[in-house]
Specification:
The chain is 53% helix and 3% strand. The longest helix has 21 residues. The N and C termini lie far apart (35 Å).
């Protein structure tokens, strides 16, 4: 279990989590939670993911009032996508982070699209319409891949 506190030191990644073991624990718990969401054919919010991670790991929750903590959550989602591709590669890749939205929004966050560009899954010059279409396809593919009821997807 994590014993992290708000006074954690900054790691080489520029985030405020103290140890690689804590990141590993958060990645594993986050991936498990997002896989469950995919199986259920549901989206989640950053807030729900944050609460779930804190409850399941004992790590302190991310403080979304702080820019560095919001960036750390984005970093975590990138690590979850990486880990998922290592464990269960797909071609073309699916991004589990597609299932995470802002509360009250029907779209992924900007970090999702930035990572998709870095992974060369989305053109760097993608329009808002292309980004939204890419996100919808990612969500549908995740639901299909993980057995969500087609009526939900």
């Amino acid at each position: 279990m994590c014993a992290a506190s708000a006074s954690d030191t900054t790691s080489g990644s520029g985030t405020s989590r103290s140890e690689d073991s804590e990141w590993d624990e958060l990645v594993n718990a986050g991936r498990t939670f997002l896989l469950e969401c995919a199986k259920l054919g549901k989206l989640t919010s950053y807030t729900e993911l944050n609460v779930t991670l804190a409850r399941q790991t004992g790590c302190r929750a991310f403080d979304f009032e702080r820019a560095d903590e919001r960036a750390a959550m984005g970093h975590l989602l990138g690590l979850i996508v990486e880990r998922d591709q290592e464990i269960a590669p797909s071609d073309p890749p699916v991004m589990l982070s597609a299932l995470v939205n802002y509360l009250g929004a029907n779209d992924a966050g900007s970090g999702f699209y930035q990572l998709a560009k870095e992974l060369q899954l989305l053109p760097k010059s993608a329009s808002a319409e292309e980004k939204f279409g890419f996100w919808v396809k990612q969500v549908k593919r995740l639901y299909e891949r993980h057995g969500a009821d087609p009526a939900v997807a």
